[in-house]
Amino acid sequence: MVTIEWAALSATDLPAIAGLAGRCAARDGGLPATASPSFLERRYVTDAAVGAFTQGLLVACGAVRPVGETSAATGLVDPDHRGRGLGSGLLDRLAAEPGKVRLETESLTPQAHELFLARGFRQTFAEDVFRRDLTRPLPDVPMPAQVTVEEWSPLTEGAFHQAYSASFADRPGFPGWTREQWVDWLVDDEFLPGCSLVAFEGDVAVGFVTCAEEFLVQVGAVPGWRRRGLARALAVAALGRMREGGAGQVFLDVNVNNPASAALFGGLRFEKIARRARYE
Question: How many CA atoms are closer than 13 Å to the CA of 49, on its beta-carbon side?
Fold first, then answer.
């Protein structure tokens, strides 16, 4: 019989957490960054972190961290130790934290989904993670004849925000960010201005694509330019620039309520590798 010992976790347990995250990612898929030390430190080095050990091996861990007025909970269970009650035991510990608890997962499994629902949680957000091998050929997708494109720069930043707002204003949950809010969310050390493009028809911004290292962040076209190949052309142009910069793969997220985008990227030979989700 396997003996399980639960214990509080600290920063000294990060190597063990990283090992567990790597084993989970190998089975469940997901973004490589979610198994990185920096990501795991932000999620699991908290005052409310707990782990399950068997013979010194960390086989499950979870943590709760404050996010505004909510507590966000995340957890991992070793693939070789699932089906033994570790997930439910971990969830019971995390959900017992005071206040409202939101569950977050970077690689949702059917078993986790059923467990969350059984414990009275409901899914409030889900998006699929896609990956494309950039060593494979890209399709030849010319930009529409009446469209010109420019890279991200201080001079085009405003046009990018205009295209972003006009492209996504009718999407469910659109935050309506100001230019400053959007740029603050978008631009960091991994942002790729040379691969990020804004499309113009005359002097009007009609579409855009933004990129970070190995990541296609956003692609959009204003309503009058949808289903005319603009978003596809912008995506392919950005992918080509990323490949020229040395990237061998690229990832992106697509909300599950956006089948048009899922079809667009499926047609560009992106493959779904995981589902991210939140429950409350």
Answer: 19
